[in-house]
Design a protein that fits this description.
The longest helix has 21 residues, at about 5-25. The protein is built from one helix and 32 strands. The relative contact order is 0.13. Helix content is about 5%, strand content about 50%. The strands form six sheets. Strands 23, 24, 25, 26, 27, 28, 29, 30, 31 and 32 form a ten-stranded antiparallel β-sheet that branches. It has a five-stranded mixed β-sheet with strand order 4-3-2-1-20, with helices on one face. Strands 13, 14, 15, 16 and 17 form a five-stranded antiparallel β-sheet that branches. The protein is mainly beta.
Length: about 500
Amino acid sequence: MDKQYADKLREADRIVSEKGTKSSKLGYRLGYHISSPSNWINDPNGLIQFNGEYHVFYQHHPFSADWGPMYWGHVKSKDLVHWEQLPPALAPYEEYDRDGCFSGSAVNDNGMLTLIYTGNVWLDEEKKELKQVQCLARSKDGITFIKEKENPVLDEIPLEGSSHFRDPKVWREGTAWYMVLGSQKNGMGNVLLYKSHNLLEWEYCGVLAENKGENLGYMWECPDLFELHGKHILLISPEGMEQEGPLYANLKQTGYFVGEFNEQTFSYTYGSFIELDKGHDFYAAQTFLDDSGRRILIGWMDMWEQDMPSKSDGWAGALTIPRVISLSKEGRLLMNPVAELESLRAFQTVSMQDTIIEDEITIGFGEMAEIAAEFCIDDEALESFGIKVRCGENEETVLKADLNSLKLTLDRERSGKGPGGGLREAELTRSKTLSVHLFLDRSSIEVFINGGETVMTSRIYPDKESRGIRLFAEGGKVNARSVRVWDLKEGYIKR
């Protein structure tokens, strides 16, 4: 490795670690989510299980709590819960990636942990014109990465693409490697498909999917194509979708198509776009297949162009908890927390059965908690019910099931400092029961409804003293058939 490049990586690691020591105990610091010890992170990259350990990389600016020239931050774990902080894996340095090592993926190539990423170069001072190419870096030990001497391995943009040509997701099928890339043509987002026998030489196979004039955005970022229960899922993160009622309420979206991929013709037939997470803060999700055969997803747990109060503590950005995804009989993706997260449970603080809720009751307290609740809806007069968390004198985050409008809402208007953003809504199936699985951290909430049919992820920034957990009902009574609350321990991250 070039000495100057190695020095650059070491300096980034030193600054992040030293600043992180000072900010590690400040108020909004997450207890069990992946984030950097200090400064900025965004997209998860390079998710993989390699030699028995889980590796997660992420877009990282080590020198500021604002976005800047992208490095790849790096953590690893044996159990998807307790993460060890590692030195940055990649830094912008070469002529082809001098302005950023942008998002990408990871594969095991004959025992070498291989990263495939986008090298970014700005062509003007305003950072409007750019050149993007695809690059490789390899590691024997999973920690120190050497950039491929033949980089860039892909720099020719097809006629169906544009200079926005990024976020390679690579996987192996039989003896061949495939890659999808996000791009655009004439202001319409698309996904490009490539094939290779050695990761170095790539054959263009055509446009896999594209916006044909619908409300699907001008750029499709972070594509991911994978098989699940006999179907092929294409995950994308479009920029530029217009809000349609409660749909697409965030600045940028993440969603998916369900379809069929033909390896002989390289064609993909697919249905309608479906939004994946209904909360305020979820973008750039990526999946990987672990050694047990689970398809696991992690997303960026923030959103562009909004306030991030944690910046005052010297850091910004976090990743979601890992989620196992499956496909329902109706052809919808289900997301549920990985079972390993149960190891975070310190002790159970609440255990209730068949408790009738009328009006509102406080059931417990916690800033890091897991809540599992089953509600039975028998009272025809009942209008709405739900759970309030991080409740204080003037603060609360409210999850509500409205039985009149058949809407599930997550309201963070009174969640403390930060971006606000009002309600996020999801459709609620009419049923006599509702299950809620909720993960609460110091500045986040993740809600899984009815076995992952609906998921809502949001950042919240309440005062440390706002720790109440309450159940409520409006217009009638609801039976809390079972409610369990656990205080959660921290997921150890070496800093």
